[in-house]
Amino acid sequence: MKRVILFPFMAQGHLIPFMQLAHLISHRKGYTVTIVNTPSNIDTLRSLLPSTSTTIHLSSLPFNPSDHNLPPNSESTHTLPSPLHILTLLRSSESLRPHFIRLLSDLSSSDGRPPLCIIADVFVAWTVEVARDLGIHHAVFTTCGGCGTAAYFSLWLHSPHLKTPDSSFGVPGFPDGFRLDRSQISGVLKASRGADDERSYSFRRYIRLSMESDAMLCNTVEEVEALGVKALRVVSGLPVWAVGPLLRGPKPVSSLNHDSRACMEWMDSRARGSVVYVSFGSQNRVTASQMRELALGLEMSGRDFVWVVRAPVGFDPEEEFRAEEWLPEGFEERMKNRGVVVRGWAPQVEILSHASVGAFLSHCGWNSVLESLSNGVPVIGWPMGADQYYNAKVMVEELGVCVELKRGLEGEIDGGDVARVVGVVMDGGEMKRRAVEVGVKMRAAMGGGEGGERRGSSLEAFDDFFDKVEAFYN
Ligand code: UDX
């Protein structure tokens, strides 16, 4: 029996593509897959695993958040009280090292041979040291896009923004014409000012360790993100295989909870392409004033909407929904025939694959981008940090499927601009056509291969990666 070990980072947006990768490996290659993580993330993974699966195993490693100064139940980025804890969570994963080594040794004894390879998240790249010590092939899997990962790596490694007084600058590893603006640099990177303070040291360390891996898999499609994948090869110095989009499919509406079903039923009553879906992923939250402007903008746009609302910054994320404090006075009452305010968590994949959705107002997290475009839904971009700026840039400049909201120096937005951009994207026939075209390419990349038919590029890359791994193993 050949076994592949998967080790995702502890975040919703990472667990889902890792689970999809596990499905693909077990279905296409017939290998046994063991996914390793902390107990509560294993519970999340279990909820994503079909009960019929016998070849994907979940293995939980002991982890106690309070040993790392994390609040109880903080084992995933979306349960952290603030994004400031992400670095602590990132570092705390290293406490899993001895347990991980023990698990690998137990599995090797019971299988009679070591695992075929370890595929680990870029953010748990310390696993490369374990793999090297045990002589196991190692690949990092970036659940972000090619451009996003390459830009993120390059900015952390080379700090090009500190080498020029100009507001725009080129990025090492990208062609000359590719320029970023200072406003497209995340707060953590800006704050580091190129020095190896504690936070910067950790980020750079994971990037450098990733670059010591044997290979990189990326959750993207080569022909959709040609520039980004090419840059990723240059910046990382690794062989990169684009194996995406690794996405979960929509669940039947009957299997959803009561609120989610009600939301989908409301969408059934709306015209094709008439609804704006608004959501900011699993970890970003907006400020109270941004929330007010967004509400005003949606109201002014005159469009139907589904909006996932969470406590604004400064409020406890776990606290009860407080419409009267968070939303403009009477908003829900005035909008009761035009919109659904979802409290906390929406069935995003199901929503984006519903025919009534015409646009997605998104923070441009990579999973959201893939889920939107694979359904041919154009995007209203409101990037808030990390790789999100570069994902938005790809969508605006290369794919022509997105318009960004204007943001002030402190990230403030204006309701009038929200209403205007919603109109531009919802009525943008050409943009919709291009989004549909990208969706077709994405599906084609994962299709084919039956009855002599040519495989899509991502399936071909996936098979090629495992051919190389097998050659190393034998
Ligand atoms: C994080 C980073 O913030 C992002 O920059 C990076 O590109 C990926 O990792 P996150 O912010 O969670 O991701 O956003 P995203 O990548 O969009 O993933 C969110 C996932 O949660 C998506 O699969 C989405 O479908 C799901 N989700 C989110 C829901 O199902 N319901 C919700 O209400 C919100």
What's the short story on this structure?
With 474 residues, the protein is of the alpha/beta class.
Describe this structure in words.
This protein is of the alpha/beta class. Helices cover 44% and strands 14% of the residues. The protein is built from 19 helices and 15 strands. The protein has helices at 12-29, 39-48, 86-92, 97-111, 127-134, 146-158, 187-192, 198-211, 226-236, 258-268, 288-301, 323-326, 331-334, 348-352, 366-374, 388-399, 415-426, 429-445, 457-473, and strands at 3-7, 32-37, 56-60, 117-121, 137-142, 168-170, 179-181, 215-218, 240-242, 275-279, 304-309, 339-343, 357-362, 379-381, 402-404. The strands form three sheets. It has a seven-stranded parallel beta sheet with strand order 3-2-1-4-5-8-9, sandwiched between helices. Strands 12-11-10-13-14-15 form a six-stranded parallel beta sheet, sandwiched between helices. A hairpin with an 8-residue loop joins strand 6 and strand 7 (179-181). It is globular. The structure holds uridine-5'-diphosphate-xylopyranose. The site of uridine-5'-diphosphate-xylopyranose (UDX) has 23 residues, from helix 1, helix 14 and helix 15. The site of uridine-5'-diphosphate-xylopyranose has 23 residues, from helix 1, helix 14 and helix 15. Keywords: Glycosyltransferase, Transferase. Its EC number is 2.4.1.-. It is an enzyme of class 2 (transferase). This is Glycosyltransferase.
